[in-house]
Design goal:
Helix content: 10-25%
Strand order of the largest sheet: 1-2-3-9-8-5
Keywords: Lipoyl
CATH architecture: Beta Barrel
Structural class: alpha+beta
Oligomer: single chain
CATH topology: OB fold (Dihydrolipoamide Acetyltransferase, E2P)
Organism: Sulfitobacter albidus
CATH class: Mainly Beta
Radius of gyration: 13 Å
Shape: globular
Distance between the termini: 19 Å
Largest sheet: 6 strands, antiparallel
Strand content: 25-35%
Order of helices and strands: EEEHEEEEEHHEH
Number of helices: 4
Pfam families: GCV_H
Protein name: Glycine cleavage system protein GcvH
GO cellular component, one term: cytosol
Length: 121
């Protein structure tokens, strides 16, 4: 699992070319209980740092930026009806979307979990 400075996690699923993207547990805690989420559309082509989603919580709202360049291939539509899952399981069932990266080697430049833990302290 890799992390961005914008508090997203990225995980390549075993045997798949897609990368799952979600909100870190730290960011989910800062957000408070998620009340509303707007997700990107499947098939959207996105560029790094482009806004792709919005999450509104009880404590804050968050613009989710694309972590890297690529195409959105799946969105977690369950979150539209049950956004509270983001608060309950941010690094598991509450993945936001899956994408195919234009250049998968760019993940190497992202933070490891240990580096991310130091970053948020």
């Amino acid at each position: 699992m890799k992390f961005t400075e914008e508090h997203l996690w990225l995980r390549i699923e075993d045997g798949e070319e897609e990368v799952s993207v979600g909100l870190s547990a730290f960011a989910a805690a800062e957000l408070g209980e998620a009340k509303f989420i707007e997700l990107p559309e499947e098939g959207d082509t996105v560029s790094a740092d482009e806004q792709v989603a919005v999450i509104e919580g009880s404590e804050d709202a968050l613009d989710v930026l694309a972590p890297l360049d690529g195409e959105i291939v799946e969105v977690n539509t369950r979150l539209i009806d049950a956004p509270e899952v983001i608060s309950e399981d941010p690094q598991g069932e509450a993945w936001l979307f899956k994408m195919v990266l234009d250049d998968p080697s760019e993940m190497d430049a992202l933070m490891s979990e240990g580096a991310y833990q130091k970053f948020i302290r």
